[in-house]
Amino acid sequence: PYDYLTGQIALFEGAQGKENIFDRVDYKETEKDYFTKTIIPEILQRIHPGDTIFLETSGGQRNNVTQMMLLARILTYQGTKLKCAVYSDFFSKEKEIYDVTDSFRDFDLVNGLNEFGSTGATGMLESYFKDTVASSKTVVELVQAMKELNETIILGRISKIQNKSANMKKKLESAKNELDTQKDNPILAVLLPIFRNKYEQLSSTPELIKWCAANNLIQLA
Question: Whole-model pTM above 0.70?
Answer without folding.
Answer: no
